[in-house]
Design a protein that fits this description.
With 164 residues, the protein is an alpha+beta fold. The chain contains five helices and four strands; from the N terminus they run ββαββαααα. The longest helix has 14 residues.
C-alpha cells in the first residue's frame, strides 16, 4: 500500500518480572511493544509496577527476569547504549537550586553518559529552546525572580539532554 509505513518496535518487553529483595513482586510478567514514533504511557493504581517498569527500561533497576530491548539494544548486554538514547523526566521538578541552569543541564547530560563537545552543544541548544540563555549562569534558585516559570522551563529541558 502506497503511503503506509510499517513502524518497527522501538521497545519490546517480554514477560518482565521484578521481585524485590524482600519478596515483593513489583512486576509480574508483563509484555508489551512500543512502535517507533508512537506515544506510550502507563496507567494504573499505586503499586501496579509502573515506576518499577520505567526504572528497568531506563537501566536504573536490574530486572529479575524477562527480555527487554530498546532500539534494538538488549537491556542485559548493552545497557550503556540504551542510556545514550533515552531521556526520562521525573514526576517531580528536578532542578538543583544551588547549581546554575547550565550546571543543572550538564549534570543531567552526564547522567545520560554525554560528555565533551556533544554535551556542551546540547546544553546550548536546550538553553536557547527554553529561552534561558541570558541567565544560564545564574543559580537556579533565583530563576523565579523576576521571571516566574524559569525553573519550570529548565526542568523539562533537563530531561531532554539525551538526543536520540
Amino acid at each position: 500500500m502506497a503511503g503506509v509505513s510499517i513502524l518497527s518496535d522501538i521497545i519490546t518487553v517480554d514477560d518482565l518480572v521484578e521481585v524485590y529483595g524482600d519478596g515483593t513482586k513489583a512486576v509480574q510478567g508483563i509484555s508489551f511493544r512500543v512502535g517507533e514514533g508512537e506515544f506510550f504511557g502507563f496507567l494504573g493504581p499505586n503499586g501496579a509496577g509502573k515506576s518499577t517498569t520505567i526504572k528497568v527500561l531506563t537501566t536504573l533497576l536490574r530486572k529479575t527476569s524477562g527480555r527487554v530491548t530498546v532500539a534494538g539494544y538488549d537491556l542485559d548486554k548493552e545497557p550503556q547504549e540504551i542510556r545514550k538514547l533515552i531521556g526520562a523526566e521525573s514526576q517531580e521538578t528536578v532542578v538543583d537550586g544551588d547549581l546554575t541552569g547550565r550546571e543543572n543541564l550538564k549534570l543531567q547530560g552526564n547522567l545520560q553518559q554525554m560528555r565533551g563537545a556533544a554535551l556542551e552543544e546540547r546544553v546550548k541548544e536546550l538553553l536557547k529552546l527554553v529561552e534561558l540563555e541570558d541567565v544560564a549562569d545564574k543559580r537556579a534558585a533565583f530563576y523565579s525572580d523576576p521571571q516566574p516559570g524559569w525553573t519550570l522551563s529548565l526542568a523539562p529541558a533537563s530531561g531532554s539532554t539525551s538526543k536520540g
